[in-house]
Design a protein that fits this description.
The protein has about 375 residues and is of the alpha+beta class. The chain is about 35% helix and about 20% strand.
Amino acid sequence: MASTTKTDSRARSRRPAAPAPLQRRVKTLQQRLEEADCPALLVVNPRDIRYLTGFIGDDSWAVVAARSSQIYVLSDFRFQEQIPQQAPHVSPIIRKGPIEDELVKLFKRLKLSRIGLQASHTTIAQRKKLAKALGASKLKDLDDGILEQRAIKDADEIRLIRRAGALQQEALRQVSGQLHPGQTEFEIAALLEFHIRRLGADGVSFPSIVAVDANAALPHAIPGRAKLKSGSMVLIDWGARLEGYCADMTRVLALDKMKPKVQELYKVCLAAQEAAIAKVKPGVPMVEVDKAARDVIAKAGYGDYFGHGLGHGLGLDVHEKPTLSPRSEGELEPGHVVTIEPGIYLPGVGGVRIEDDVLVTPRGRQVLTDLPKDLESAIIHP
C-alpha cells in the first residue's frame, strides 16, 4: 500500500497545472461546495465535465472535492488515452467494473463523509445504485449552481462562440450562392451542414431547420421534400459548434422576389428584433427585453402569432441559461450570451424569424453575428 501511495504522489507531481480558465471555474464551484458544507460533488453531466476539466467523453463521471486541487475522472478503456490528451491535469480512474464501485473506492480513499449529487442531472436509477453502494446518508442532493456559472461566459468562451458564428455565417454565404429552383429542403440542409464541416466546425449545434414557404409557419420545422421555386421563401435556422461551443442564427431568404405579405412580416420581425437588441445591457430585467420585441409585433396585429420566447443562452449547450421570455426572472449580466429571435408564423402562408447572437458587455451589448438582414439582402437572385 505504501508503494502505491508514493506512485500516486509522483504521478500527481508530474501532472501539469490546469489551464487558468479551468482553475477559475473549479475554484468558483469549490467555494459553493464550502458554503453548502459539502465535501465533494459528483459531476455526471458530460457538458459540465467538459466545462470543468476539458475532457470530452460519455459514460464518465468527475469528482470535485471542496478542498483539493485534484479532480478525478472515472471512465473506461475507450477514454484511457483520450483523458491525458484532453485533460492531462486530472487523475483518471479507468474502471473495469461498474462505475459505482470505483466511486465507492474513491470515496473511501479520499475519506469523504458524504458527496453531493447534481440534483438536475442525476437519474433516479443512478441515485438508487449509489444509495445502495454508499448508503443514503452519504448522499446529498445539491443545486450545484454550475448552470448559472456557465451562463456567465469568460473571454475564451466568448471567443469560441464568436468564431463559431463567423464560421456558420460563411457557410450560409456559400449556400445562398447555390440556391436555385427545384432544390428540396433536404438538399439545402445537407449543403449547409457540409459547408459547416468543411469550414472547420466540430459539427452542427442542432439539426438544421430549413422550411420552404408554408412550412416556415412551423417554428421547428423538419426539412423534407418541399421544393424551392421562383418567389419562394425559405427560413433557415442553423448553428455551428466549435470546440464544443454553439452559435445559433436564423435568416429568411426569398428567390427572385418576396411576396408582399412575407415582406410585411419581415419588416415587423426585423423591427421587433432591433427593438429588443437595443434593450440589452447589464441590469435590464430579461422580461423587458422580451417585451420590447413582443410589443412591436403585437402593435402590428400579429401578437397571437409569436408564441415562443424571445431567446436563450448559448454555450456548451445550444439552449442554456439565461432565457428571455414573458416568464423570465432576473436581470442581464455582463458575460451573458443570448439569442434574440422574434418570429411571426402564419399558417398556410409561412413564417419569419430573424435571429442573432448578442453578448452583454459591462456597458451595453455587442452583436456577435453580423450577416446582413435588411430586406434587400434577403432576396436572392440565382
